[in-house]
Design a protein that fits this description.
Length: 805
């Protein structure tokens, strides 16, 4: 497998990117944070859907919140090209995935489905792929930094043996659960004595059940006989009872009709007496009619007098209000006069405010100009201090590193330029500290003093202006109050004019208080006679209804007498004997008692049979459950034995794999290390705990004995060897590329050259080798360089040298 092209849209630093990958040794170079490692993260995202960051930070900074993120990778396996597309759409970045074959036909869709299809094509899971294909500087250092058992665990994780550990851990947990389950099931098993006892009880109950079945047959026959006799007696009783109900119903109906007829006769008598009384009251009503007419005439006189009284009372009330309004008018006029005198004394405050505003604006403009100058001075001061700090840090690093160290800036050896470099840095420090720094600080202090004086002047103007505003506020309050008083005075004058007019109008209506009192007295005397007249008048309205109801009652009585005679004749024709009815009812009750006794005895016998059957079933179920539990214990014991064997198998499998891995890693690493060091070191060997040793002049030395550069070279060789071994174990022999991130960190130019030679040697086994580095100088070591830069619009890439675009 090799990579052919990568297309990105809104992915991390990249807004838009389309890059084709050639074969060979490829350098990916750029400053830290430019987006170099993000290219490999995009490859992993495309192949396995692995998102390198929290999903909310996946989208580029400049993209809209609903813009899609897309990663498309074209790769080649066995001469056939495939394309995988991962898209994250919408505000929530919902995942959409597709895989296309060499004919550009979709073969899989969906996040999980595409990942599974890629794993089948590549022959590796994501873990195996990252362990065998990509390596970073931290990965290299982890190999030599670990000790003893830690290194063994690290190698096991790198080759994927941690999955075996996880499986074995879950297997042992399952075994412990199964062991507890067997213990629990064993507690449920019956002892041999319990089994024998239950078998004997079940046999005894079976015999009891046979006897109960015979008795049940006899009880059934008796119950049928008693039921038949009861049904016959019941039928005879029902016939006699029907005759009894008919006789009783007719008798009850006759009683109801007789009672109804007697009630109608009483109502006829009451209505006749009520009509006679009403006719007597009619004469009294005729004698009261003259008083009612007199009361109506007096009532009209009273209403006019009431109206005149109300006008009189209202006039007196209005006359009482008039002096108060006149006093209020005088008071308001006096207040208006005082307010106008106060306004004359506050008129000059507005002119003084304008003068203070002009003074403040002038001072603030001067402060603004001085602050701009100060900002420039402080920026210059920051630059001088930064240059002083940089020179001091350079002096410290060079002094600590010594004469034969490399320059911390350019990474070149100092040697003879050591003293000259220190002297140059010292002069620059003296110049910046004693001249530039002091000049700028003095100028800043001078400007700060001027700003302080100007700000004091501004504060004084503001305070004086606030006092003047308070004066103007009081002036506005007086004007507002004066306007309110003018309005109030107008309203009071209007009210006084309205009162004068209304009083003049009310004086036109005369009122006679004595006549009013005499009229009320006469009306009170006539009130009882008027009430009695209207009461009799209401009763008289009932006469037509009473007469009609009386006739209805007379007709109803005639009908009831006829119905009463007919029912008496029907009752005489029914032949009913109370003695016969009593004898038949007694016989039915006796038969019912016998039937119920037989049914009760049958029920008791049936319950006894059911209990016996339940006891037999319970005993047999206990014996059956015991047999089933014994089978479960046997089955779980066999499963326990299988889990024990699997545990032993995984132990043996792990040891076999590790024994095969050690010589493979040692062989690959030794061959490559010898080539990088130009044959100076003969080989790398691996002991039982995966301790790594370098063979030097026939002797083995631990890797920690050697210098930092040699250790890094050895770690690189070990990592490549582990990658090749993992690739072989995972079945990924078709993988045709490797990737290394920042592996030149501590190497000098000579060692870099040796590493490059080793990487060129690896080209015989890998069609593509990607090297990520932030060291710009190594661009010259590659025939093909992908240069990555960070811009305001996102990261950009450009091919340099051979194979460039």
């Amino acid at each position: 497998m090799i990579l052919r092209s990568l297309t990105l849209q809104n992915f991390k630093q990249y807004r838009e990117l389309v890059v084709d990958f050639p074969e060979g040794l490829i350098g990916i170079v750029g400053k830290n944070g430019s987006g170099k490692s993000s290219l490999f993260e995009a490859v992993l995202c495309a192949l396995y859907g692995e998102i390198p960051v929290t999903r909310e930070y996946l989208r580029s900074t400049g993209a809209g919140e609903k813009d899609s993120v897309a990663v498309s990778l074209e790769f080649e396996i066995d001469g056939k090209r495939y394309r995988v597309l991962r898209e994250y759409r919408g505000k929530a970045l919902a995942a959409h995935s597709s895989l296309y074959d060499f004919n550009d036909e979709q073969t899989a869709s969906g996040q999980k489905e595409v990942t599974a299809a890629v794993e089948r094509l590549v022959g590796m899971s994501c873990d195996a792929f990252t362990r065998s294909i990509f390596s970073g500087q931290k990965d290299l250092g982890a190999i030599s930094a670990a000790t003893g058992g830690e290194r063994r665990l690290l190698i096991r994780r790198m080759i994927g043996m941690d999955r075996i550990d996880d499986i074995q851990k879950r297997l042992r947990e399952d075994r412990n659960v199964l062991r507890d389950k067997i213990k629990g099931q064993m507690t449920l098993l019956l002892s041999d004595d319990d089994i024998k006892e239950r078998q004997l009880q079940a046999a005894s109950l079976d015999k009891t059940l046979e006897s109960l079945n015979i008795r049940m047959i006899q009880s059934d026959e008796l119950l049928k006989k008693m039921t038949s006799e009861y049904e016959k007696a019941k039928n005879d009783f029902e016939k006699q009872d029907a005759l009894f109900r008919k006789y009783t119903a007719l008798k009850a109906s006759l009683g109801k009709i007789t009672a109804t007829r007697e009630g109608v006769e009483k109502q006829i008598k009451d209505h006749a007496e009520r009509l006679n009384g009403i006719m007597n009251e009619k004469k009294e009503m005729e004698s009261l009619e003259v008083y009612v007419k007199e009361w109506a005439a007096l009532q009209k006189v009273k209403e006019k007098l009431d109206e005149a009284k109300m006008c009189f009372i209202k006039k007196e009330s209005l006359q009482k209000q008039l002096p108060g309004i006149e006093r209020e008018i005088v008071s308001i006029a006096e207040k208006i006069k005082n307010g106008k005198e106060r306004i004359a004394g506050l008129a000059d405050a507005e002119v003084l405010i304008q003068e203070k505003d002009r003074e403040r604006e002038s001072a603030e403009a001067e402060i603004s100009d001085i602050e701009k100058a100060l900002e420039s001075m402080r920026s210059e001061l920051g630059g001088v201090r930064m240059r002083i700090q940089e020179r001091e840090e350079s002096v410290r690093k060079i002094t600590e590193a010594g004469r034969y160290s490399v320059c911390p800036t350019c990474l070149r050896p100092l040697a003879e330029s050591f003293d000259a470099t220190l002297e140059k840095l010292g002069k620059e420090l003296t110049l910046y500290q004693n001249s530039e720094l002091q000049r700028i600080l003095a100028a800043i202090r001078e400007k700060d003093g001027i700003i302080k004086k100007k700000k004091d002047a501004v504060r004084k103007c503001v305070q004086e202006r606030e006092e003047l505003h308070k004066i103007i506020a009081r002036l506005d309050e007086v004007r507002t109050h004066l306007a309110a008083l003018d309005n109030e005075l107008r309203e009071k004058n209007k009210s006084k004019d309205a009162l004068d007019k209304e009083i003049a109008l009310l004086e036109k209506t005369p009122y006679d208080e004595a006549l009013h009192g005499e009229t009320l007295k006469k009306l009170k005397e006539l009130e009882p006679k008027k009430l009695r007249y209207h009461a009799i008048e209401g009763v008289m309205k009932q006469v037509p209804g009473l007469q009609a109801r009386l006739q209805e009652l007379i007709d109803e009585k005639a009908t009831l007498v006829q119905d009463e005679n007919e029912l008496s004749e029907k009752l005489k024709r029914i032949t009913f004997s109370e003695e016969m009815y009593s004898n038949i009812k007694k016989l039915r009750d006796e038969c019912e008692t016998c039937r119920d006794a037989a049914a009760a005895a049958h029920t008791v016998l049936s319950q006894e049979k059911q209990k016996t059957e339940y006891d037999v079933t319970t005993l047999k179920n206990e014996l059956k459950r015991d047999g089933e539990n014994r089978k479960k214990v046997e089955k779980n014991s066999k499963e326990m034995e299988v889990l024990n064997r699997l545990d032993w198998f995984f132990d043996d499998f792990r040891n076999v794999v590790l024994d095969r891995v050690k010589p493979a890693i040692a062989g690959h690493a030794g061959e490559l290390f010898s080539r990088i060091t130009a044959g100076r070191y003969e080989a790398i060997t691996v002991d039982g705990d995966f301790g790594f040793f370098i063979q030097d002049e026939g002797r083995l030395y631990p890797i920690q004995r050697f210098s930092g550069g040699e250790v890094d070279c050895a770690n690189l060789c070990l990592r490549i060897a582990i990658s090749r071994t993992i690739s072989d174990l995972a079945g990924g022999g078709s993988i045709g590329f490797l990737g290394f991130d920042e592996i030149f960190g501590s190497q000098d130019m000579e060692r870099r050259r040796e590493i490059m030679d080793a990487l060129l040697y690896l080209k015989e086994m890998y069609r593509q080798i990607f090297i990520i580095s932030h060291i710009e100088e190594i661009k010259e070591e590659f025939s093909q360089v992908l240069h990555v830069t960070r811009t305001a619009a996102g990261s950009k890439v450009q091919w340099l040298f051979a194979g460039g675009q």
